[in-house]
Design a protein that fits this description.
Blueprint: H1 3-14, E1 18-22, H2 28-35, E2 41-44, H3 48-52, H4 55-59, E3 65-66, H5 75-85, E4 89-92, E5 96-98, E6 103-107, H6 111-117, E7 122-128, E8 132-133, H7 136-155, H8 160-164, E9 190-194, E10 203-208
Parallel strand pairs: 1-10, 2-3, 2-4, 4-7, 5-8, 7-10
Antiparallel strand pairs: 5-6, 6-9
């Protein structure tokens, strides 16, 4: 295990979040099966990491009460979000995890960050090693350079960062965390730093020694 990953895990534990470590994404599912009881209600945010680890297929196996937002349209989607907010286990990745043991997440619709902060009894985050950064300042830059632009491209969102390959705020001197474009399609709307988990162990962070997601 790399020293920076070891430090990150120690600090996550110190901050009330339970860390796990695996070498490959194929080792994620056995941990998930041990953490989630059959029959429990489960849901997840939009995440390429979640897909790469086979989480949607597991949840759709019939062994869980799977709240799958992709099956809904219009107002029903919002109702699915509300239902997911009260689920037993919510799966997501993190835009960045600092070596100090902090989670940094930025959302547009913000149903994902809402569930991270409060609601689901358990949050399981799956994080590739590429998302570990030294501190919050590095996390802010990571989202502006490596998370938001490719996600906009993937989703077909015509934002300035999709065209530039980075947030427009990075063209300015000393950009603030919340600086960004003024587009109606902006996906960086709410910024959440999880520095301490009062409900000890509610958030589990599975760190994978591979590069996963954006």
């Amino acid at each position: 295990m790399e020293k920076y990953i070891e430090n990150t895990m120690k600090n996550l534990e110190k901050n009330g979040m339970k860390p796990f470590y695996v070498e490959t994404k194929e080792e994620v599912l056995p941990i998930v099966k041990a953490l989630v009881k059959e029959g429990e209600s489960v849901s997840h945010g939009g995440s390429e990491t979640i897909k790469a680890c086979g989480i949607p297929e597991l949840l759709n196996s019939g062994n869980y009460d799977y709240i799958d937002r992709s099956k809904y349209e219009g107002e029903a989607v919002r109702k699915a979000y509300i239902k997911a907010f009260g689920c037993d286990t919510y799966f997501t990745s993190s835009n960045a995890v600092t070596e100090r043991g902090e989670l940094y997440n930025v959302d547009g619709n913000s149903n994902r960050v809402a569930c991270i902060v409060y609601g689901p009894k358990q949050v399981i985050m799956i994080v590739g090693k590429n998302k570990i950064v030294p501190d919050i300042n590095a996390a802010i830059t990571r989202v502006k350079e490596k998370a938001a632009p490719p996600n906009c491209v993937r989703l077909g969102i015509p934002s300035p960062c999709a065209k530039l390959g980075k947030c427009v705020s990075l063209t300015r001197e000393n950009p603030f965390m919340c600086d960004g474009c003024a587009a109606d399609t902006r996906i960086c709307c709410n910024y959440v730093v999880s520095a301490k988990q009062r409900h000890n162990g509610r958030i589990k962070v599975i760190i994978v020694n591979e590069e996963l997601g954006y």
